[in-house]
Specification:
Blueprint: E1 2-8, H1 14-22, E2 27-31, H2 35-42, H3 49-55, H4 60-68, E3 74-80, E4 97-102, H5 105-113, H6 126-138, E5 144-147, H7 148-153, H8 155-165, H9 189-192, H10 194-197, H11 215-232
Helix pairs in contact: 2-3, 5-11, 6-11
Length: 238
């Protein structure tokens, strides 16, 4: 059994990649299992907060047990790095194959801002992504890094490389999925997943980077870009 923990921030192609693995007959998937715990501990008023809290276990240890004891043939876990609060245990990460999905922060800031106002660096996961990556490296692990831009540019080529690096066979079912979402979508899908629900495959290459128009956007980009650049040095090549 292969357990994959895919670590990203919001608006990173993470849902499309979950659908890609979820369309394989040999994979079970789970969508952001620490979300309810994160909302309970932080008190943040995210869209659909009460629905999220009611839909998942709120205890981190209970979530970890479900992630490590699953008995599907293969298991894909979609995680948001910002959900891994300092109080959440990390040692379980050593028992799964960890992959870090990155996206240029200018695109993340522009996309996240269209769905959620008043956010800061901690909400988009860059610093937490680097912390998790460096923690695994310090433990002697060599986690994978893949850039969402490369997947959108060459989906088949990049998915083949990712599968090879994970010691998995490539399955062409990963290139497409049914319109309308996945049975494992979190309850929050109706707010966040509109675009990917209308899709049946990966969108094509993105255009120019969005312009950061406000001082706050520029400050966020200045803080997040060094993290992105550091992680990008380790990414699977296109």
């Amino acid at each position: 059994m292969t357990k994959i923990a895919m670590w990203s921030g919001p608006r990173n192609l993470s849902t499309a990649l979950m659908y890609s693995f979820g369309n394989r007959a040999d994979f079970a998937v789970v969508d952001e299992p620490f979300y309810a715990h994160y909302l309970r501990e932080t008190g943040l008023t995210h869209p659909m907060r009460e629905e999220v809290l009611a839909s998942q276990p709120q205890d981190a240890d209970q979530v970890i047990q479900s992630l490590t004891k699953a008995n599907a043939k293969h298991f894909y876990q979609k995680h948001m790095c910002q959900h891994m609060l300092p109080t959440v245990p990390r040692d379980w990460m050593l028992s799964v194959k960890n992959v870090f999905l990155i996206r240029h922060p200018a695109r993340v800031i522009a996309s996240f801002g269209a769905k959620y106002e008043g956010f800061g660096l901690a909400d988009i996961g860059f610093s937490q992504q680097l912390e998790l990556f460096e923690r695994l490296r310090a433990k002697g692990h060599n986690p994978l890094v893949i850039d969402s831009a490369d997947i959108r540019t060459a989906p088949e080529a990049m998915l083949k490389k990712l599968c090879a690096a994970l010691d998995l066979s490539f399955d062409r079912a990963m290139l497409h999925w049914p319109k309308g979402g996945h049975a494992s979508d979190g309850i929050w899908a109706s707010h966040w997943y509109n675009a990917v629900h209308a899709s049946t495959g990966f969108a094509g290459p993105e255009g120019p980077l969005p312009v950061m128009e406000t001082a706050k956007q520029k400050d966020l980009l200045a803080a997040a870009l060094p993290v992105y650049d550091k992680l990008a040095r380790h990414k699977l090549p296109l």
